[in-house]
Amino acid sequence: MANIDSWESFIRMHGGIVGARDCFEQVCDELLFKENSGRDVHRMHSAGGDGGIDIYVSNEDGSVDIYQCKFFRDHLDSSKWEQIKSSFKTLISGHSKLKLNIRTWYLCLPKQLLPDEIATYEKFKHDREQEGICIRLIDGKDLILRITEVGLADKWFGANSDLLGTSNNLIPIYLSYPTPHTSLQLKFIEYLKADLIKRGLYPRNVGSSEYSMDAPLTAISRVMTEVQGCLCVAFRRVYIENAVMKKGANVSDQIQENMSQYWYTSPFVHIEPAMAFQMKLPTLIFKEKDVAREGMLDPAIRGIYLPEFELSAEEPISAFFESQMYVQLIEQYAEKVLWTSKPINRECSVAEFFQKR
Q: Which CATH architecture has domain 171-341?
């Protein structure tokens, strides 16, 4: 069975966004046909308009379920929601003529919704259910699981594909770090990636392990919904020999300060862990020595221990990864990620739940 983790592989296999968009409705059609043996499953032709219906499935009670398939991978902005609303409006205005007894309207998307998108969807759902039709969402993760279960993964995502290039048993985490600019930084990342995989964690990173046509923040947001934790390495990036902080300060309690020999890291070292923190993902940050303690690197802000490492030609990289400090921290972090990734059996009692843990 193929290991499907990202719709980016689907896009690559089908020649890019345009080809993938053309195939998306077809793969949904084949999935529903496989899942609904003995029932009528029909994909509507778009010539002359589809009446707000991409696919419909008949039910035993004479009602039908309607599926609207939208190949939206980036953020669902107002224009995309207008397309979704327009499809539903077209269906409602025409279904009486078609004499369809609609039970449920499904929106199929090859992505997982972000918090603001969930809020917009819930409002859309609430407003449209006034029409007496149940509204449901099938997101990218649900589609992937169902496509795999019915045996269509190899056909649509590549024969025997392993989209992460690794085992199904590894738990994906987001590995945030600036592009290494020294051989020691590069070696540090190589050691870290190897150690994470050894501990059952698979590091993902936009621009390193995978690429996207979307704007960086959009792509990062999407990957964050597909991982179980975030680990960040704050490498030295920008060196400031001399500078002035708060130059010209003339407000009470604010003073001008001279700075010298300061190192700053990449802005994404602050952005990516902040996104993970907002999504309540287990987060661990390692900081290279002398990098400024500000933003997400300020222990006072995060309220947790911020381990520091020094890269030196005199000491082997392996010494850090063999240190008691690193081993204890990474073991605790891996345990938190493992806990987060475990599915909860909602049918068991509280006592049974903790016994299973």
A: 3-Layer(aba) Sandwich (3.40)
Average pLDDT, 10 consecutive residues per value, the chain (357 residues): 61 79 90 89 66 86 92 91 92 70 92 89 89 88 85 74 48 90 90 86 73 69 86 93 89 88 90 90 93 86 78 86 92 86 41 38
Long-range contacts, stretch 68-71, CB < 8 angstroms, 24+ apart: 68/105, 68/106, 68/107, 68/108, 69/24, 69/25, 69/28, 69/108, 70/107, 70/108, 70/109, 71/17, 71/20, 71/21, 71/24, 71/25, 71/110
Task: Output the CA torsion sign for 107, 108, 110, 113.
Answer: positive
188 with 45: CB under 8 angstroms? no
- Are residues 105 and 88 in contact, defined by beta-carbon separation less than 8 angstroms? yes
- Please report how many Cα atoms fall inside a 13 Å half-sphere around the Cα of residue 42, on the Cβ side: 10
Block residue for tokens 């994404």? 268
284: which strand partners? 231
C-alpha distances in Å from residue 255, one per residue of 5, 244, 259: 51, 11, 13
Name the DSSP letter for residue 254.
-
pLDDT, residue 164, reads 38
DSSP state of 206: B
pLDDT reported for residue 167: 40
Structure tokens at 133: 């039709």
Report the distance separating Cα 186 and Cα 173, nearest Å.
19
Report field, pTM of the whole predicted structure over 0.90? no
Sign of CA dihedral 136, 137, 141, 144: positive
Query: 7-157: what fold?
Result: Restriction Endonuclease (3.40.91)
Residue of 85, 86, 120, 111 whose CA lies nearest to 7: 111
Cα separation, 24 vs 68, whole angstroms = 11
Residue-range domain boundaries for the chain: 7-157, 171-341
Q: Residue 253 contacts by C-beta under 8 Å, 6 or more apart in sequence?
A: none
